[in-house]
Write a structure and sequence with these properties.
Helix content: 25-40%
Strand content: 25-35%
CATH superfamily of the largest domain: ANL, N-terminal domain
Number of domains: 3
Shape: globular
C-alpha cells in the first residue's frame, strides 16, 4: 500500500494494475526489454516499476515534465526499445524507438542519468540484483527507521526517492507517503499528521521547512541528501529535528554512507556494510572517494572526502575545486566563511579561468543591504588564507539552484559575468 498526497492505493489497486499489464501487448513481454517511461500518474509509475522489476525488464524513468521530443531523444540515446508516455482509457501510448545503443547482454535493471562532462546526460545502468543488495544493506545499516513512515517529498523517478524512500519502505513493510504537492505547508501538515515519520527531501526543501518549524515543536526525523547543507542551515535544523540524518551516494552505486549524530554539515555518516570506501585520512588532505562494490568493481565518484574515524566527510566535487597558484581552494570552505558575514543570506563560490592556465575564486552573494566587495574581502581576510579570498565578487538577486537543490558551479563558470547589483 502507498499514499500519494491524500490518495491511498491499496493492494487491490496493484493487483488490478498487474492484471492489466499481464495482457498488455508490450508489457506482458517486457522480460529482457528496455522501456523508457514518462508518466504523470505516480501510483501507476510505482506499479509499472514493480511489475517490470518482477518480470526481469529494464526501465528508464523520465521526469514527469519531460517534453515528448526530449523523452524520445533520451529513450533513443539510452538504448531503450519502447517509450511509454501516457495512460488513457486503460491503455499506454506506446512509441517504438529505433535505437542504435541497445546493449543486448546488459542485465535487467534501472537506468538513471548523471551529469556528463560534455553537458549531455550520462546514462547509468544498475541491475535489479545490485539494487536489492543495496536495499538489504540500507535496512540493516539503518534499523532506527524500521517503524517510521517515510514521507517522500522528492521525485519518485530518481534513485534517492525511488530506492531509499519507496522500495526500502516496501521492503520494511511500511506504507510510504509520496508527496506530489510540494507546497511546504502541505508537507508540514503531512509530517504533523504522522508524528513518527521520516522526511526524504532535497536540502532546498528541508531548508524552507526549517524556517516554518518552531524549536519547541520539532519534527521527528529528516533525511537529507544530494548536496551539503550550509553550516547555518545545518545548525538551525539540528535544533528543529529530533533525528537528523544525512546520506551520500552516486548514480553508479546508489547509497554509500548514512549517519545520524552528525558532527558537521559535511558529515556523511558511516559506509553501508555491502561496500568499501577509500578517501583521505584527515581534513587537511582529502582524497578521491573511491568505492569498491560487492563484485570487486571500483567506482571513482569524482568527489573529494576524508574520514574522521569511521565517518566519511565530503569536501567537494573534484571538478569544482579551484587551483590558485598551485593551492587548492574548496568552495564549501569559502562559502562557510562568507555566510558567517552579517547581512549575507546566500552565497556560492566557483572558479573562472584567468588565462595562462590559472584560476580565480569567484563569489556571488545575496544580501538585503548593499555590501561593498572590499568589505567582503576584508571579512574573509581575517578567516581565510590569501589564495582562498574571492577576487571576483558580485552581489546578485538570487543564487540559481536546480530542482534538487544543487548549484551548478560549472554553469556559473561558463556563464557571462553576472550583472552585479549596485554596491
Amino acid at each position: 500500500m502507498i499514499h500519494v498526497d491524500d490518495q491511498t492505493y491499496d493492494q487491490g489497486y496493484f493487483k488490478s494494475r498487474f492484471a492489466q499489464f499481464d495482457v498488455h501487448p508490450v508489457l506482458s513481454g517486457c522480460a529482457g526489454r528496455r522501456l523508457a517511461v514518462c508518466l504523470q500518474d505516480t501510483a501507476l509509475w510505482i506499479a509499472l516499476c514493480l511489475y517490470i522489476k518482477e518480470k526481469g525488464g529494464t526501465v528508464f524513468p523520465l521526469p514527469i515534465d519531460t517534453p515528448l521530443e526530449g523523452a524520445r531523444r533520451r529513450a533513443e540515446r539510452s538504448g531503450c526499445e519502447i517509450l511509454l508516455v501516457a495512460f488513457h482509457d486503460d491503455g499506454f501510448e506506446v512509441i517504438a524507438i529505433d535505437s542504435q545503443n541497445v546493449l543486448p547482454d546488459a542485465p535487467a535493471g534501472l537506468i538513471q542519468t548523471s551529469s556528463g562532462t560534455t553537458g549531455e546526460p550520462k546514462f547509468i545502468e544498475r541491475s535489479w540484483a545490485s539494487i536489492d543488495t543495496e536495499i538489504e544493506s540500507y535496512v540493516s545499516h539503518f534499523p532506527e527507521a524500521n517503524d517510521w513512515t517515510p514521507i517522500v517529498a522528492c521525485p519518485a523517478t530518481h534513485s534517492y526517492g525511488l530506492i531509499c524512500g519507496i522500495l526500502v519502505a516496501l521492503r520494511r513493510g511500511l506504507q510510504p507517503v509520496i508527496i506530489r504537492n510540494l507546497n511546504p505547508k502541505f508537507i508540514l501538515r503531512k509530517l504533523r499528521e504522522l508524528p513518527s515519520s521520516i522526511l526524504y527531501s532535497s536540502p532546498a526543501m528541508i531548508t524552507t521547512l526549517a524556517m516554518l518549524v518552531k524549536e519547541e515543536e520539532p519534527l521527528w526525523a529528516v533525511m537529507t541528501s544530494g548536496t551539503v547543507l550550509q553550516k547555518a542551515t545545518f545548525e538551525k535544523l539540528a535544533k528543529k529535528v529530533r533525528h537528523l540524518y544525512q546520506q551520500y551516494g552516486c548514480s553508479e552505486a546508489g547509497c554509500l554512507s548514512l549517519g545520524n549524530g552528525l558532527l558537521a554539515a559535511n558529515d556523511q555518516g558511516k559506509p553501508l556494510p555491502h561496500i568499501a570506501i577509500a578517501a583521505g585520512t584527515n581534513a587537511g588532505e582529502p582524497a578521491d572517494i573511491v568505492v569498491t562494490l560487492p563484485d570487486g568493481r571500483t567506482v571513482e565518484t569524482r568527489d573529494l572526502g576524508y574520514f574522521i574515524g569511521d565517518r566519511l566527510h565530503f569536501v567537494s566535487r573534484i571538478d569544482e575545486m579551484i587551483n590558485v597558484a598551485g593551492f587548492n581552494v574548496y568552495p564549501g570552505e569559502v562559502e562557510e566563511v562568507v555566510l558567517a558575514m552579517p547581512g549575507i543570506r546566500d552565497a556560492v563560490v566557483f572558479k573562472k579561468s584567468r588565462g595562462f592556465g590559472g584560476e580565480q575564486v569567484c563569489l556571488h552573494f545575496v544580501s538585503e543591504e548593499t555590501i561593498p566587495a572590499d568589505a567582503v574581502r576584508a571579512f574573509c581576510a581575517g578567516r581565510l588564507a590569501t589564495h582562498q579570498i574571492p577576487m571576483n565578487i558580485a552581489r546578485v538577486e538570487a543564487i540559481p539552484r536546480l530542482p534538487n537543490g544543487k548549484i551548478s558551479r560549472k554553469a556559473l563558470a561558463e556563464a557571462p559575468p553576472a550583472p552585479s547589483l549596485t554596491f
